[in-house]
Amino acid sequence: MDKMTNDTQMADRIVRYGALKPCKTAFIDAHTPGSDRKENFTIIGGGVSESPDQHVHITLPHGFNIGAAGQPPNCRNSLHSHRTAEVFFVLSGRWRFFWGRWGDAGEVVLEKGDIFNIPTGIFRGFENIGDDYGMIMAVLGGDDAGGGVIWAPQVIEDARDHGLILSEEGKLYDSKQGEHLPEGISPMPLLSEDELRAFPEPGTRDVVPGYVARYWDLHALADRTPALVIGENGVLRDKPGFEVGLLTRGSSTEEMHRHDRPSVLMPVTGHWNVVWAGNDSYSAGETVLAPGDTMSVPEGLDHTAYPSMSGDAALYHVVATGDAPGATWTE
């Protein structure tokens, strides 16, 4: 394979915050009051959007998906569940996460940089409780993100009352746009009471200690060496199919390293120089990442990242491990 030019070799693997393309009709609650102003972003992988309007920035498989949710104040994402891991960190704003069949089993408030490894198999939702537009970044386990979203029954019922119907195939139809379920296609069935009983209802004290990590605690841990945040031996011990680490100014280095799988860099604070060496496929080069930017680093490519300016600087690093995609909540 010929080396690509320095102008194009990484361009398709870097998504700038300002270039993110939102979808406002990604999910079944797109018309439901209180949820109708949210924006969904699919950055890496196919994601779990139910709308053909969703733009995917990087389609290369990584073993996980990267997405984001942007919401104005008092806007919420409705109760849902996934079959694989779902990890959020706050890029901006102040967010309340809640969970349980009706969203009242437990809750936690997260600030900038805080991270939440939401237990697989429980209904969860979130809302922006800050004063400004906020953004949370998400990592979903697996290349196919677990086959879609499982909605709490009331979400599907509310959506139907506002013109949106989800088919059994997971595709949205908007009656406000004159759309209807095709002949022979049934609506997504509601979960039965027996099925709903299989979704746990852990309380706040059960979830927060083992699944939530605060930014400044992690920042202190990563002062001298990078901190493994989520992983078998991480601060949040789990094997969701990927590892998440935190790198800060104090633990950054100009020494290069490589991974045998694609990895992803996601700054939380500060501006970061990313430098990579040349090989048979890529010319040597460098770029600067800012908060909200996302960069996919090819497998086997020597690279490094370190702050380019003074002040607080931290970035999350994600790499697949090939483990099972997340453990289901157990008592």
From TrEMBL:
The GO terms describing molecular function are:
isomerase activity
Q: Which residues form a coiled coil?
A: none
Note the superkingdom of the native organism.
Bacteria
Where is each Cupin type-2 domain found? 72-137
Q: Which UniProt keywords apply?
A: Isomerase
Q: What is this protein called?
A: Mannose-6-phosphate isomerase, cupin superfamily
**Source species:** Marinovum algicola
Record lineage: Bacteria, Pseudomonadati, Pseudomonadota, Alphaproteobacteria, Rhodobacterales
